[in-house]
Write a structure and sequence with these properties.
This protein has about 110 residues and is of the alpha+beta class. It contains 1 helix and 3 strands; from the N terminus they run βββα. A 3-stranded antiparallel sheet has the order 1-3-2. A hairpin with an 8-residue loop joins β2 and β3. The radius of gyration is 26 Å and the shape is rod-shaped.
């Protein structure tokens, strides 16, 4: 198990047809890597790699194999995003909570029971 801040994720997407064999629908990958033309950068994740694999499987009842494309997307969590949006607010809130106990009871800023 890796630490949460240094998280690596692999997402697998399988694209194919269960009704048309390769003679009627031939899926081809244009490159071994995915197309990132319309990819928008994310603050929380870094896109490391996209890999595409083409598979042909023979199933009973078909004269020709069925084609599947598998895209494997590899992303890595950006540690700075986690530190700024989770750890820093928790630390600041802890300091404020502890500082409230240091205020005198006569102070108007302290809420007493």
């Amino acid at each position: 198990v890796s630490p949460l801040i240094l998280d690596l994720q692999f997402c697998s997407i399988l694209v194919g047809s269960w009704t048309f064999p390769v003679t009627e629908l031939n899926l081809l990958n244009s490159s071994a890597n995915g197309d990132t033309t319309y990819y928008v950068e994310n603050d929380a994740w870094h896109l490391v790699d996209i890999v595409c694999h083409r598979f042909e499987h023979m199933y009973p009842g078909y004269d020709a194999p069925l084609v599947e494309l598998e895209y494997v997307i590899h992303v890595q969590r950006r540690p700075r995003f986690f530190e700024v949006n989770v750890i820093l607010p928790c630390a600041l809130l802890s300091v404020v909570v502890i500082a409230v106990f240091c205020l005198p009871c006569e102070c108007g800023e302290k809420i007493t029971l």
